[in-house]
Design a protein that fits this description.
Number of strands: 2
Shape: elongated
Helix content: over 70%
Number of helices: 4
Strand order of the largest sheet: 1-2
Distance between the termini: 26 Å
Largest sheet: 2 strands, antiparallel
Structural class: mainly alpha
């Protein structure tokens, strides 16, 4: 672990909460889950806007961009607290942000060509992988006693 005295009061996120898990890991877990819900709502809004008002009504969902940006910022902070999982999570978060950008552009092209709008599969996959990783990092202490009894 690196020295967590970089950002003053924000460094409270680097404190251990339970079982060796830091608060930032739970915050990131909450952000990724919230991002999944926002993603579903944003897709439904995009589809209804394209069907009702045409491709000009389709706009980039600001709340989805904000939540993705917060995940990336949280990943950068996690990187300063715990290097190895921070690098992995930040890579996943940046992948999610890039996938979001290109998925929205793909939905715009589909709306302009009057094709049925597909689900944002790449962004949803990136979200699921980020969720699986941060859930592993933050919730593994629940499985640790069972894992220790199975492992040698």
């Amino acid at each position: 672990m690196l020295s967590p005295a970089l950002l003053g009061p924000i460094d409270v996120l680097a404190e251990e909460v339970v079982g060796g898990v830091m608060l930032i890991e739970f915050v990131l877990l909450g952000l990724v889950v919230a991002n999944l819900f926002v993603r579903v709502l944003a897709h439904h809004r995009t589809v209804s806007a394209a069907q009702d008002d045409g491709p000009e009504a389709v706009s980039r969902p600001v709340i989805l961009d904000v939540s993705s940006f917060l995940i990336v910022l949280g990943g950068f902070y996690y990187l300063t607290v715990d290097l190895h999982p921070g690098v992995i999570f930040t890579s996943l978060a940046i992948t999610l942000l890039i996938a979001d950008f290109f998925e929205f552009e793909a939905r715009l092209v589909e709306a302009r060509q009057e094709l049925p709008l597909e689900r944002p599969k790449a962004a949803m996959t990136a979200s699921a992988v980020a969720l699986a990783y941060i859930a592993y990092q933050s919730l593994f202490f629940l499985l640790d006693p069972f894992w220790d009894s199975v492992a040698w």
